[in-house]
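>> received
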Amino acid sequence: KNSRSHHRLAAPSRRSKPPMTTMTDPQPPRRGYLTRLTAVALTALILVSAPEYAAGDKKMSRAERKEVLKEKKNTAKKMAAKFEQMKSENADMVSNTAEAAQLRSYQLRKKKRKGFVRRKEKSLSSILFPGASPEDYTTNEAIPIMVDLVESRKTQVPYKYYDLPVCQSPDDEAVAKRFRKNLGQRLQGSRPEVAPFDLHVVQDKSCSILCMVTIGGKKLRWMRKLVERQYRVHLSLDQLPVLMRSKELNYAVRGYPVGFKAPPSYTGLKNDELYIFNHLKFTVTYREDPSQFDGVRITGFDIHPVSVEHKIDTDVVTPTTTVETCNADGASPPVNDPTTYLALRTGSSGEPLKVVYSYEVKWDKQDLAWADRWDVYLVGSPDDDIHYFAIVNSLMIVAFLMGAVATIMIRTLRKDIAGYNEMQTLEEAQEETGWKLVHGDVFRPPTFSPMALSVMCGTGIQIGCSVMLVLMCAVAGLVNPMKKGQALSSIVFLYVLSGSASGYFSSRLYKFCDGKDWKLNTIMTATAFPGLLVVMFIVLNVFLSMAGAATAVSFWLIIALFLLWVGVCTPLAFAGSYFGFKADKGDVPTKTNQIARFIPEQPFFSNFPWSCLFGGILPFGSVCIELFFIMSALWLHQYYYVMGFLLAVVLILAATCGTVSIVMCYLQLCTEDHRWWWNSFMNCAASGLYLLLYSLWFLSAKLQLVGVLPVVVYLTYMTMISLAFSLFCGAVGFYSCFWFTKMIYGAVKVD
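>> returned
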């Protein structure tokens, strides 16, 4: 009966209104049965999918769990002792043997753990290239070897491979379309091209001739300079960089050198002699496992360069030409022998040098898993513990500053505000001292260029938005820093799309300062900082073009960047500025006096140069450890992929800038100085100066740059980075002080 009544109440007619439900109305059936049924189903699913959990850990007693943990600790100690012993004996860690792979896996065990709370074991391939899957090749399938830049740590001026006197590449448009270049690669000068080597899956190739090149005059002098400055050629196969590794010396390095310099003690000559590597021995490691996959998976790409003077009897050399020291019947493979080195110099009578290029390929079957093929590239790199220590160091600075701010807010300010609010007589009000005295001037707009301040703050907000968006995309797996140019492309595009943020914040601040020329303010916000960077980039590009560097961008790319700036960033800045000027000016808790208050003599730490030096050192100190790894990745060609750590460091940097700015603003207001606007910006922006000084130390201590142009390139780019760093820190510091002053002066009673 109740059920029928319920159905009648639940489905009323269209003309009648549904009755109000009361505590006495019949209720629908309870969902307890469904809830219990769902819980039972989930439990059964868990027990089926994890029987070891149901049968093992559930039935293990507390003593048994302690015993298992103790056993795990003992095993870890034994492994650590074994690893340290083998490391002290200089055991092989770079070859493809099972023992070397095990040692690499143990050394990189901390890098293979992903996650913050529950760290799971994963392969480096899945961490460096999330979502990437192995490519299976069939026997005798042609695989292109890609060649990238020819670069050196001693110079920051890379060159294209085919600018060197080498054999030219075959025109393969299909392969070229497969490796399309993004904006970041074009700006960095990275142009992967097909190398002139013929490679087929699981097909060994003995010594094969490529071509003969004649080198003389200016080209020969340039090649000698490349050898002296230790330039290296970078090849890749199946997206795997080529490696030079030595089992005896236990080292592995990417790329192979153009040539080498031999001292007189080695050659027996009077002076140093330069030699060129003209024969390349490729070793491709692969794995076959028909039970798991079909085909062949490439797990290693090694190279061994050889300098050999091929004996030729003709002036024209083609791949079919028979050379006595290479592809003749009974010829032994070329080896590095001081008696047959090919010197990089002209002949005895001044004739140009004739270089015959050759190569050979060997396929080596190993049991190394495809997921572990990137382990050898990160051997010797710092552990993630150092990044954790950097974050802990930064957190200690933030904790100290937070404590100072809390002391100011809770103890000092509460006491001051309570005392000010309890003043009843005129005599008591006249005896007041401290930050409340400047309540009539604290919100007075700055006398020096409020437009410049608003433009800088808006630009700093735009930089911060773009960097945070890029880092969040990298943490989410949308941007991979290991893929060349992808991070730089993301920064450029997101900076352009963040133009509305800069226009909005700049216009709001300019309107608060009673600015009237809003068009000029918007144009300066959209063009000042990007225009400065473009001018510096174009001037540097002229010198790079004169030197023939690969990083010299084309005129059309500059036009494309200009159109991206004018057609996207500037309209977005105007749109943000429009909404900013349409918004309310914003209320302040106190009225501004018509006449500015006299400012007494200030202590030295509140004056301009000293306050900036004191205020900028703490934000820089919070990121200096992580900054070393970023600089090494930028200028020493090392891998940097820990975007989660970098995101945490950027957040800590913002918190440090905010707290430092608040503390110094409070100290300035206590000395009855109401000119906090520019000081709050400059105190944190000075950290960019420390970054520039740090880059000078890095140049002298870590880099061994040769020549004037490499130093100019380094200083130009580091100046750009320091400016962006200053604007971001200054904007965070200013808006933190703006919030702080509105909060404290809104808590006092002012007549």
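>> The longest helix spans residues 384-421.
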